[in-house]
Amino acid sequence: MDYPTLQGKLIMPEYGRNIQQMIKHAMTIEDREERTRCVKTIINTMGNLFPYLRDVNDFKHKLWDHVAIMSDFQLDIDYPYEILKAENLYTKPEKVPYKSHRMRYQHYGITLEKMIERVADYEEGEERTELIRLIANQMKKCFLAWNKEVVDNRKIFEDLRELSHGKLDFTDDTFKLVESKDVLHNKKNKQQQQQQRKK
User: Fold this and answer.
1) Which of 18-27, 77-86, 100-109, 142-151 is the most confident on average?
2) Between the CA of residue 170 and those of 119, 132, 133, 176, 180, what are the distances in Å?
3) Residue 19: in which H helix or E strand, if any?
4) Angle in degrees, CA 85, 88, 93, rounded to 5
5) SS (H, E, C) 180-195
6) CB 116, CB 163: distance < 8 Å
7) Mean pLDDT in the chain?
8) Sign of torsion, CA 23 27 29 32?
9) pLDDT for res 25
10) C-alpha closest to that of 71 among 110, 34, 42
11) pLDDT attached to residue 7
């Protein structure tokens, strides 16, 4: 009996040994046109193994790349696409340039800090006031998610003043912020509901 482990390593295990053997056979065909026809049939068979991927962009292109990889780039045929080159197979992608922002308070996050800076430059008016109220409430919720204890509203307004470089200077009397107990109670209820759904 010929054990699979003795038949050599599978280059792309997801296609199985039969596909690899087909490609190996195609490489032995002398006539180039016949060889190309044979590989097209193999491509169709490979596509049938993953029918749910047919709607994915460049699916056929990927299959031709896989054939080239499984033939160790030795298959001499007329490829319908530009095929991946052997030297590019293991190259690392270029590093994604991430913007590094220093956050003063991790629990508020960079998005909230940017919102504060933007709103600080808005013209005085109802829209600006409402946005500040919403931001201050969100700051309190973020603080409670991080601290899980009651937070004094004065702390929120101090942070708001600091993050806006003094442009948003308000007191506890200006805005009515959400109550800490309400935020924590809502959070507890959500956690209980999630646990019940899991059961």
Assistant:
1) 18-27
2) 14, 10, 10, 11, 19
3) helix 16-26
4) 145
5) HHHHHHHHHHHHHHHH
6) yes
7) 83
8) positive
9) 94
10) 42
11) 62
Please count the other Cβ atoms lying within 10 Å of the Cβ belonging to residue 101: 8
Asked if residue 49 has pLDDT above 80, the reply is yes
Half-sphere exposure of 143 (CA within 13 A, CB side): 23
The first and second tokens of residue 96, run together, are 């994604």
The DSSP code sequence of 32-86 is HHHHHHHHHHHHHHHHHH-GGGTTSTTHHHHHHHHHHHHTTT---S--SSPPPPG
> Amino acid letter at 17?
R
Q: Are 140 and 178 within 8 A, CB to CB?
A: yes
State the residue for tokens 């969100």.
138
- Chain centre to alpha carbon of residue 33: 43
- Which is nearest to 135 in space by CA: 120, 150, 124? 120
